[in-house]
């Protein structure tokens, strides 16, 4: 009897130890550690969870594939999907959220991208269907990129960019709600190779007011700098095409917004300030008559000047609840992230720059390449890839994916103050498993904790008292997720077992 109880006790202790040992690896922030040389390509919020997708490559087997992570509001990974392919490298597009429980994305197929495979996946991370898009455009020309656009009902549009010699052109593939190729449209604007011709790239596209609307950006190397606004019917029939002249439309990729039934694009525009030429964050409105209105308020001298000529990776977001418009930009040389907040009249309310962790103790600097930003659990999440450098001006270093609440880009931590690293490392919640109380092994800060059940419901929010203690006696036995904050700034998250 005694030995039986001893064996059972040993098994329980072993399970708990194993659980605690592996819990750190299941934090969403840990994807950078076990996905080196990868990139969080896209992320969406759906069905109460955060879904992120990234390609991967196994250097040992020379194979690649993609991964999808599903995490809850406590930043803990609750499920994942890994699909391997016999490719040297896998290309992954963005998600399209057809509904709260159904999403679509696309990946490359073939060793040299001989086509695109579009997948349908549900919220349980089960692949439901797929369709392959293969034609001579992939076989005869150079593939550059692709992205998905939500169309009417459950239809989607695949926008692809190819290069015919040195000239780019777009092909649009329309996929119906039965997941079959419905229509195909080749934009042959760039096939005119006569002297003085220009080439265009579809840089911004969305389904808006019962038609596909597109902004084609002129090739910066072309002789004439102009842009085109095109409108297609839901069956991909060209309805209108209007030229828009002017050099202020620059870098308008992937930031379309529909705000109060109007079409806006986040971009940059050139501005001379005190003798210096800089690129300024900006929005433009495309009106029904295809005229373009600049919404920037940077003409005023008292407005803050963002400056810099190397702004890229624009991500626009509209918070319909707060009625605020956000533009997140990437300063490519420094790796800094700039966030700008506007009201719906596009008056700048505030702006702030963030630098991803600079660990001065180990002299490790990090540059960010932002791929996007989204609102989840009432906070902004930033995702992309970071490059760790030993010196700020190094050109090469290990690339690691990241997805992180912007509020974690806290000035105190990022500037590498000597106390910041030990604070994060020394923060320990105990006992775990617990019975009626939990304690925090850090007495230098005022902390609060949010505890969630396994389906993501908030069951307890409390501040640690003077003894760094919180009562959890009212929680039922089971597994929970927790997040610790210091003055509303994220500090730490993990799993908690209540006995």
Q: What order do the helices and strands come in, and which of them pair?
A:
Layout: H1 2-23, H2 31-34, E1 42-46, E2 49-58, E3 63-71, E4 77-85, E5 96-99, E6 102-109, E7 115-122, E8 127-133, H3 136-140, E9 142-150, E10 156-164, E11 167-175, E12 181-187, E13 200-208, E14 211-218, E15 226-232, E16 238-245, E17 256-259, E18 262-273, E19 276-286, E20 292-294, E21 311-319, E22 324-331, E23 336-342, E24 348-354, E25 365-376, E26 379-389, E27 399-405, H4 411-414, H5 420-426, E28 429-430, E29 437-440, E30 447-452, E31 458-463, E32 469-471, E33 478-486, E34 489-498
Antiparallel strand pairs: 1-2, 2-3, 3-4, 5-6, 6-7, 7-8, 9-10, 10-11, 11-12, 13-14, 14-15, 15-16, 17-18, 18-19, 19-20, 21-22, 22-23, 23-24, 25-26, 26-27, 28-29, 29-32, 30-31, 30-33, 33-34
